[in-house]
């Protein structure tokens, strides 16, 4: 079967660093994406990794190791506005842009 | 750009009634997706279109659900008859065929409650 595993919740204080891990088992792999969703809002795209290594976008970075079927999202210099759910998602078909398998999401709670 | 536009934002209906959800994708995007989000099942893909043609509807729960895309700027998801277990947030998303990194752009969703 197909599965994406990520922690259900992470709590950290403002200014801290949080790492959200994602392990996946899918029929195919054509990239790992991360999306952020605030309560009551729409998921919004954060990052994408197709190749091994680290991608950095401001305070957020994403890492992928295809040999380990593993990736993570790193949130640095946490701010209150970063309190949200974060989803990893795998594209498991080569030509279906945007057809994604989503993980269950990790709720990040940032405290003062 | 206005982004993906969905209507209505909230829908409350009684079991057995027909429900129609609407979506306007971002202009120029070739792909349109309908996702459903619930606490139990998370975000799950129902159906997606490429250039207005349904490509994969394997996620559609049953025959009560149907989706259409009559043109590049409009899609509907219809549930007939609706049941309480259909209560969820339904998201429409679009993406452009620009290479291997084509992020999904989600609308704000329709929160459906079936009583």
Helix content bin of chain B: under 10%
Q: N-to-C SSE series of chain A?
A: EEEEEEEEEEE
Percentage of residues in helical conformation of chain A: under 10%
Approximate shape of chain A: globular
How would you sum up the major sheet of chain B?
7 strands, mixed
Structure summary, number of beta strands of chain B: 11
Proportion in β-strands of chain A: over 45%
Average pLDDT figure of chain B: 94
Q: Separation of termini of chain A?
A: 40 Å
The largest sheet of chain A is: 6 strands, mixed
Strand content of chain B: over 45%
| N-to-C SSE string of chain B, H for helix and E for strand | EEEEEEEEEEE
**How confident is the prediction overall: mean pLDDT of chain A?**
94
How does the overall form of chain B come out from the CA principal axes?
A: globular
What Rg of chain B, in angstroms, do the CA atoms define?
13 Å
Structural class of chain B: mainly beta
**Residue windows where pLDDT falls under 50 for at least 5 positions of chain B:** none
Using DSSP, what is the number of strands of chain A?
A: 11
Protein chains sharing the most extensive interface? A-B, 21 and 27 residues
Oligomer: heterodimer
3D architecture notes:
The complex is a heterodimer of chains A (112) and B (115). Helices cover 0% and strands 55% of the residues of chain A. Chain A is mostly beta strands and 112 residues long. In chain A, strands 2, 4, 5, 9, 10 and 11 form a six-stranded mixed sheet that branches. A five-stranded antiparallel sheet of chain A has the order 1-3-8-7-6, with no helix packed on it. Chain B is mostly beta strands and 115 residues long. Chain B is built from no helices and eleven strands. In chain B, the strands form two sheets. In chain B, strands 2, 4, 5, 6, 9, 10 and 11 form a seven-stranded mixed sheet that branches. In chain B, strands 1-3-8-7 form a four-stranded antiparallel sheet, with no helix packed on it. The model of chain B has no long low-confidence stretch (mean pLDDT 94). The chains are: A mainly beta (112), B mainly beta (115). Chain A binds chain B through residues 30-31, 33, 35, 41-45, 48, 50, 87, 96-100, 102-105, and chain B through 30-31, 33, 42-45, 48, 55-56, 91, 93-98, 100-109.
């Amino acid at each position: 079967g197909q599965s994406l595993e990520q922690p259900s919740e992470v709590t950290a204080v403002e200014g801290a660093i949080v790492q959200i891990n994602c392990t996946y088992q899918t029929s195919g792999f054509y990239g790992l994406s991360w999306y952020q969703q605030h309560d009551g809002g729409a998921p919004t795209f954060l990052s994408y990794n197709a190749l091994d290594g680290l991608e950095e976008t401001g305070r957020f970075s994403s890492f992928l190791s295809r040999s380990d079927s593993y990736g993570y999202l790193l949130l640095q210099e946490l701010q209150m506005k970063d309190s949200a759910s974060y989803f990893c998602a795998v594209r498991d078909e080569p030509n279906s842009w945007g057809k994604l398998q989503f993980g269950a999401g990790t709720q990040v709670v940032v405290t003062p | 750009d206005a982004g993906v536009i969905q209507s209505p934002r909230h829908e409350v209906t009684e079991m057995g009634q027909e429900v129609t959800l609407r979506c306007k994708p971002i202009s120029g995007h070739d792909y349109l997706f309908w996702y459903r989000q619930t606490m139990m099942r998370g975000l799950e893909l129902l159906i997606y279109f490429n250039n207005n043609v349904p490509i994969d509807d394997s996620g559609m729960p049953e025959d009560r659900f149907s989706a259409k895309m009559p043109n590049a700027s409009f899609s509907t998801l219809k549930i007939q008859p609706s049941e309480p277990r259909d209560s969820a947030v339904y998201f429409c998303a679009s993406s452009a065929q620009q290479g291997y990194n084509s992020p999904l752009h989600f609308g704000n969703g329709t929160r459906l409650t079936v009583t």
